[in-house]
Amino acid sequence: MYTVEVCFTSPEGVTMMMSNTLYMLGWIILIPATSSDAALMMVPESQQYDSSTDFVSFACFESDYSEIPVEWLDPNRNVMTPTTETARICVDGSFLTFDPPVKSDAGRYLCRSKTDHSTAAEGVLIYLGPPELLFEKSQTVIVPHGEQVVLNCTVSSSPDPVYNWSIPDTCSSCPHTNSDSVMIFTADITDSGEYVCEAGNEYGGIYMFFTVILASYVGAGACYVLKTVQDVWLEDPNNNNYGRQWLIVSKATGFSKKRSLIQFEDIPNSCQTVNHAMMYLYYDTSAKASWQTNDQAPFITRTIQAHRVLQEWDETQATTTKRTSTSLWNTPYLGLDDIDARSCPTGHTTIYAVRPQSFVEIEITSAAKEWKAGDANYGVVIWATNEDQNGRDTRFASTSDSDPSKHPYVVLNCD
Predict the structure, then answer these.
(1) pLDDT digits over 270-305, tens only?
(2) Which DSSP letter does residue 38 get?
(3) pTM
(4) Which has more pLDDT, 198 or 38?
């Protein structure tokens, strides 16, 4: 705001204030209404904090450190209501205090003059912590033969993460790795498989999983995802393990061996001919009893096979001897005898002695083709070929796992 004085000079040369008669050209002088033209400043301009930080605070003053009435705006640019000193977020005149700050406080805060909104200053709160995913943790990528594909491991992180990629052993083209992404220039069958991205900083790490399927290998038709409708692991004749977070196979030292049953949705009518079917299981851990040493229960490599199940079962009732409360298996643990289950496996995978948590794939094309041909869909049984060997049991996520992205599923390709 300004005050205005208009001065004129009379013929006699006497300067006088504005009158009704103008004798000659005058001039305008603008005088500021306030004596200070200092801008607002934030002290400090930015602050970093983590989960162990007890207290952070911003102060907002004019550049000559004089104090004027200000208001504070949150990262969404909503005016913050003044609060008492005992509040966790204290808005008190020229001061904004977080005691303590939490992760959700991160963002850009603004203080501005109550009398002149064009005068403002900004302060930034930066949360330091482990990386966070911006997209789904697990992704299935179907790529045509000879085409290019980019796998992006997109996370949010401060400080910036370091990326580490694991690619399939069979990969012949050696994909180009560029920190947060992998590029396959000309996809062929050797590029199919599982790609794992680990993004980490000093506060922790996180994984993303990409399953690459070559479209020409699975067929050029439509693709479907079949979800799990029931699953359970089998360990003894008297107890049913429905609702547990794992599907367990093999044997931990001192415990009984285990096998697991998984049944998927029926194949849709729109699938005329099954070209290829791949089952995906999320490997979680290889476990032992807490009191055992690594020598007593070592990590060992196990080959996991899948066989098509031939008899009906119920996940809430199945045990090693019973498939329902009133019906028995032909052989305990399901005989691989073409009565309980097919004697020949549909496919297999290898769980090496040490491997990260991630999806593994097992082909079940032969089972899916039989289901499509009209045979009853009772799912598959999975087991370890060295299931009687002491070591650690192998655990995959079941549909009872709290993270739906880890649940078993099938990718089906059809004409």
Answers:
(1) 888 898 899 999 999 999 998 999 899 998 989 999
(2) P
(3) 0.52
(4) 198
Higher pLDDT, 199 or 175: 199
Q: What are phi and psi of 376, to 5 degrees?
A: -65, 140
Q: What share of the chain is helix, strand, coil (3-state, %, to 5)?
A: 5, 45, 50
Domain that holds residue 28: 2-32
Output 331 or 28, whichever has higher pLDDT: 331
Number of residues that this document lists for the chain: 415
Question: Are 276 and 330 within one domain?
Answer: yes
How much of the chain exceeds pLDDT 70, in percent? 86
Range with the poorest average pLDDT among 51-60, 195-204, 262-271: 195-204
Cα 121 versus chain centre, distance: 35
Paired with 348 in beta bridges are 305
Say yes or no: 250 and 325 in one domain: yes
Quote the CA–CA distance of 96 and 5 in Å, as a whole number: 42
Structural domain total, the chain: 4
Asked if 331 contacts 341 with a C-beta cutoff of 8 angstroms, the reply is no
Tell me, yes or no, whether 291 and 374 share the same domain: yes
- Output the domain CATH number for residue 357: 2.60.120
Q: Alpha helix locations (H) across 233-280?
A: none
Q: Which of residues 162, 190, 215 is at a domain's end?
A: 215
* In a shared domain, residues 319 and 237: yes
One domain for residues 231 and 310? yes
Pick the closest to residue 248 from 238, 258, 257 (CA basis).
Answer: 258
